[in-house]
């Protein structure tokens, strides 16, 4: 898999210090010892009768353009934990992604983001709080992800975990907003979540999380998430199978786009007016 602009796959593996080594990172490796000692059950878990046997495909999004923004550092730690737990992880760099504009949907960063969304089976969203709520850098990424593309809904039924970083005292404004966004994107949000307060105190000079209750909570969230993601992908098609959509497919041969439905509705109204005028 290569990026739309021809850049190497390693761009999506920037959470690794060595692109060839999953879960690698700068500084001290605290992830591997924890996974080896405490998270074997989560690493080895497979739902009974699982059809999907490949590593879960996880897309990690973060909400900063700064090289060492705290939501990026948090997202990278999540990515490393998930790789140590057996997932295939890609991180998307929002630098260069234009502000949402339907006229530039072929922009290389837009195409790249949407490719990753289609590729993924589950997401991790790590965002920062600005002026009491979600920063625009993160929201812009979600705005570029279509609810549907033709009759395909690229996020429907996928699992997502939500985390946030705070510059000051702990807040849950952003994770609450992320849950709202996840619902609108028709995604299944895991119960656990993480809000890292005073994020500037929680990371060392290498960008790694220091040992603390904040770090333990992040591990908890990723442990729950990987198990949920494995279960959810087995049943997402069943859980999102709806009577109205099955009926539409049977009658129309496929799911219609909203534009097609509106056109059909307008045509029906116009025909009704003509029939009434001819009475």
TrEMBL record:
It comes from the Eukaryota. One of its GO terms (molecular function) is oxidoreductase activity, acting on NAD(P)H, quinone or similar compound as acceptor. InterPro entries: Arsenate-R_ArsH (IPR014063), Flavoprotein-like_sf (IPR029039), FMN_Rdtase-like_dom (IPR005025). It holds the Pfam family FMN_red. Residues 56-200 form the NADPH-dependent FMN reductase-like domain. Residues 1-30, 247-279 are annotated as: Disordered. This is NADPH-dependent FMN reductase ArsH. It comes from Gracilariopsis chorda.
């Amino acid at each position: 898999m290569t990026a739309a602009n021809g850049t190497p796959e390693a761009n999506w593996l920037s959470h690794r210090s060595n692109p060839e080594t999953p879960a690698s990172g700068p500084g001290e490796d605290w992830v591997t010892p924890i996974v080896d000692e405490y998270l074997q059950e989560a690493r080895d878990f497979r739902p009974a009768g699982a059809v999907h046997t490949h590593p879960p495909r996880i897309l990690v999004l973060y909400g900063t353009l700064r090289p060492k923004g705290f939501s990026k550092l948090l997202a990278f730690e999540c990515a490393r934990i998930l790789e140590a737990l057996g997932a295939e992880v890609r991180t998307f760099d929002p630098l260069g992604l234009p502000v949402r504009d339907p006229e530039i949907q072929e922009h290389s960063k837009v195409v790249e983001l949407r490719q990753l969304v289609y590729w993924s089976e589950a997401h991790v969203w790590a965002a920062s709080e600005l002026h009491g709520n979600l920063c625009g850098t993160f929201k812009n990424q979600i705005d570029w992800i279509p609810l549907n593309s033709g009759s395909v809904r690229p996020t429907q039924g996928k699992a997502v975990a939500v985390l946030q970083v705070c510059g000051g005292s702990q807040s849950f404004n952003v994770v609450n907003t992320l849950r709202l966004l996840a619902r609108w994107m028709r995604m299944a949000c895991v119960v656990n979540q993480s809000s890292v307060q005073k994020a500037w105190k929680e990371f060392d000079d290498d960008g790694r999380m220091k040992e603390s209750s904040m770090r333990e909570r992040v591990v908890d969230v990723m442990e729950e998430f990987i198990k949920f993601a494995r279960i959810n992908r087995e049943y997402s098609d069943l859980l999102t199978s709806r009577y109205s959509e099955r009926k539409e497919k049977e009658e129309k041969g496929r799911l219609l786009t909203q534009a097609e439905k509106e056109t059909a509705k307008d045509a029906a109204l116009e025909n009704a007016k003509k029939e009434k005028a001819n009475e």
